[in-house]
Amino acid sequence: MEQDIQMKMKPGQKKWKEASAKQYISVYPPVFDWSMKLRLADQYCYEKMNRLNTFFFLGLLLTFVSACQSDRQSTVQSATDSTELTAPTESLAYDSLKARAYGADPYGMKKYVFAFLYAGPNRDQDSVRAAELQNAHLQNIMRLAEEGKLVLAGPFLDDGNIRGIYVFNVETIEEAEALTNTDPAIQAGRLKMELKEWYGSAALMGLKEIHESLAKQSIDEE
Fold first, then answer.
1. Is residue 182 part of a domain?
2. Domain that residue 186 falls in
3. For residue 176, what is the domain's CATH number?
4. Rounded to an integer, what distance in angstroms lies between the CA atom of residue 117 and that of residue 74?
5. What number of helices (H) and strands (E) belong to the chain?
6. Claim to verify: residue 57 and residue 103 sit in the same structural domain
């Protein structure tokens, strides 16, 4: 910063003296430099002062440096946040072969038959018979899954009237009903089913392969 000023050198001085002053502030490294040219009797004398009002300028400099660092950190953080928010995410490319194999429509969906398993009218079997029916029920689930007819099955975790669900990979209610009738627990009246047509993601057709990579043991192992 450059300034043209007038100044008096001592108390009682009548005339103002012309002068020019220059100030430099550097943040990296932090330096304050002040220099002045003073006109005396038609001659210029040069005085350089590296520490003028040291405490005032040091405080000013520290405030300035702190503000710069804060702005710099805010800028870096803003840039980082912006990068995280705008970073592109890679999407999987459309796989026409897999879509065809899974029976997917253009939306990646397909038709299934959804089944609700209810507690049946005949649940008075003794504990041994109930255990046998449960084991046969699980064996039937695994067989249907291996045949590709059942893509999802599982129980609800409460003890309510709805015991679990199935998702059949079939086109009609009649086909699903024929499959449910092969379940020993259904045959014994311990379970009954309500069937509904359902439209869901064709990705369920790949669920068995994923599940097998995660299962350490089979559900029918004691």
1. yes
2. 97-214
3. 3.30.70.1060
4. 58
5. 6, 8
6. no
Question: Can you give the pTM of this predicted structure?
Answer: 0.58
Same domain, 107 and 207: yes
pLDDT digits (tens, 9 = 90+) for 166-199: 999 999 999 999 999 999 999 999 999 999 999 9
Q: Find the radius of gyration of the CA atoms of the chain.
A: 42
CA 176 – CA 18 distance, rounded (Å): 104
What is the C-alpha separation between 183 and 187, in angstroms, rounded? 6
pLDDT per residue over 23-50, tens digit each? 666 555 555 565 655 555 444 444 444 4
In the chain, how many domains are there?
Answer: 2
Nearest to 184 by CA among 123, 138, 133: 133
Please indicate, yes or no, whether residues 101 and 210 belong to a single structural domain of this protein.
Answer: yes
Q: Which two tokens stand for residue 176?
A: 């699903």
**Any residues with CB less than 8 A from the CB of 170 and at least 6 apart, and which?**
112, 113, 149, 176, 179
> What tokens were used for 23?
């100030």
Strands of 109-119's sheet in order across = 150-155, 162-168, 109-119, 191-201
